[in-house]
Design brief:
Radius of gyration: 22 Å
Structural class: alpha/beta
Distance between the termini: 57 Å
Strand content: 15-25%
Shape: globular
CATH architecture of the largest domain: 3-Layer(aba) Sandwich
Largest sheet: 12 strands, mixed
Helix content: 25-40%
CATH class of the largest domain: Alpha Beta
Oligomer: single chain
Number of domains: 2
């Protein structure tokens, strides 16, 4: 049975000592096996033997998503015969990137996810219902399955969608926990209300939520989280943050204030726009160095995700750092009429407007060359008064109001699921297409 990682309970000095030892091992491995990093070290005259501490890492260049896109298989450190599994990133900020995994990488993935489930209070006694896809080149779906097996709990692979099938499975096997995109839980609640099912009497008690913001940086539930919590009080919601690139996840404990950094699997730096470290509690770009990845390890990889790091010990007893929920993605930052906003803020506002059934947010370059936001809303209310209400809510929350356009609910639902997408897409950045409306 997987136990909680002991490193979580060590003080910061011991965590740092462990990570610096693994950092030196990682640098030696990259210098010996990675075409990309070999070239980087040579071209920039980097003496890896001089990099001994976390602070020394600031002398190393960072790696970006663009590097991965341009030199994808130059990051591969093993022979192709050693590759067991291939996955791709979601491609939210550009072309998807292929990642290869070895047998050891899959074992690491299983350990990571089992530890993540343990953080959320799951154990061998649980039956885990997988409400996400395991196919379509999706690393996370496989990770959840492997993690559940590593933990020793029961697992039922239902896949995404189909509330009727989800409820039938809960009733058949008595699932006690699930992996789910939180907005889907609202569909589960709607189906339950229409079919006389009491969610609070069901066996499902924990939901590990992925892909959407469930909490604000201060730990409070988002509007989406509150909506779920109001109707399904017996279901404890846990946020988790992960990405294909870092092959690691950060999951909340029972205190629900930030995802604990798995310090035995990843080194996390928080950098400002000048790639300098930010102070504890300040917003910064999550920048990671993987520990123990064999096929495609990454050094100082800038994820593009903006979050807040908390270094204070958690009330749960763990002393590992924690990350807030993602405030936004650096590449998705919008400068609208003098106000800087990220899509999750817009989502939270729209989720709180009762007659908005669904929506997508588009940002494009207007005729003045500045950012413009258009909200395409699916609703049965198309009145001018409702447009005014929506704009007034935006002004009260972020001081500015976007354009609002009504569309059929069915069209918005279709637009939210592009043909190659593995998850609901609510934000469309048209600026990269040099679009002017």
């Amino acid at each position: 049975m997987v136990k909680d990682c002991e490193l979580h309970y060590k003080d910061s000095t011991e965590i740092k000592r462990f990570q610096e030892l693994r950092l030196r091992e990682t640098l030696a491995y990259l210098a010996a096996h990675s075409p990309f990093y070999k070239r980087m070290f040579s071209e920039q005259n980097i003496d890896i033997d001089s990099i001994k501490t976390i602070e020394d890492m600031q002398r190393l260049p960072t790696t970006s998503k663009q590097d991965l896109q341009m030199h994808n298989f130059d990051f591969l450190c093993v022979d192709l015969l050693d590759v067991i599994d291939y996955v791709t990133t979601s491609g939210t900020l550009g072309e998807p990137v292929t990642f290869a995994l070895t047998e050891n990488d899959l074992r690491r993935l299983a350990y990571n996810e089992a530890s993540s489930f343990t953080m959320a209070g799951c154990s061998k006694k649980d039956v885990l219902q997988l409400m996400t896809t395991i196919d379509r080149r999706f690393m996370a779906g496989l990770a959840y399955f492997l993690g559940a097996r590593e933990l020793g709990c029961g697992v039922v692979r239902v896949g995404n969608g189909i509330p009727e099938l989800q409820w039938d499975t809960i009733n058949r096997v008595g699932a006690t926990a699930c992996i789910v995109v939180p907005s889907f839980l609202t569909k589960m609640i709607e189906f339950a209300e229409k079919n006389g099912i009491d969610p609070n009497s069901s066996s499902l008690k924990r939901a590990v939520c992925i892909g959407e913001a469930l909490r604000l940086p201060n730990g409070e539930l988002t509007t989406l989280g509150k909506k779920i919590n109001e109707k399904w009080q017996s279901l404890e919601l846990f946020s988790t943050y992960a990405s294909t690139e870092m092959q690691t996840s950060f999951t909340e404990c029972e205190i629900h204030w930030g995802g604990h950094v798995p310090a035995d699997l990843v080194i996390v730096e928080m950098l400002d726009e000048n790639r300098q470290p930010v102070s504890n509690g300040e917003e910064g770009e999550v920048t990671i160095t993987t520990i123990g990845v064999e096929a495609m390890p990454l050094l100082r990889f800038r994820t593009g995700d903006i979050a807040v790091r908390f270094d204070e010990p958690c009330r749960c007893g763990r002393k590992s750092p924690r990350l807030s929920s993602v405030i936004g993605r650096k590449g998705q930052m919008i400068k609208f009429k003098g106000t800087t906003v990220y899509p999750p803020v817009l989502f939270d506002i729209l989720d709180n407007i009762a007659e908005v059934e669904n929506y997508i947010v588009e940002v494009y370059t207007n005729s003045l060359g500045t950012d413009q936001i258009q909200i395409r809303v699916g609703s049965n209310n198309h009145s001018d008064a409702f447009v005014k209400q929506i704009k007034d809510v935006f002004r009260s929350k972020i001081r500015v109001a976007p354009d609002v356009k009504f569309e059929p609910v069915e069209l918005i639902a279709k637009l939210q699921m592009p043909p190659m997408s593995r998850k609901v897409v609510k934000f469309f950045d048209l600026r990269n297409n040099n679009t002017v409306k």
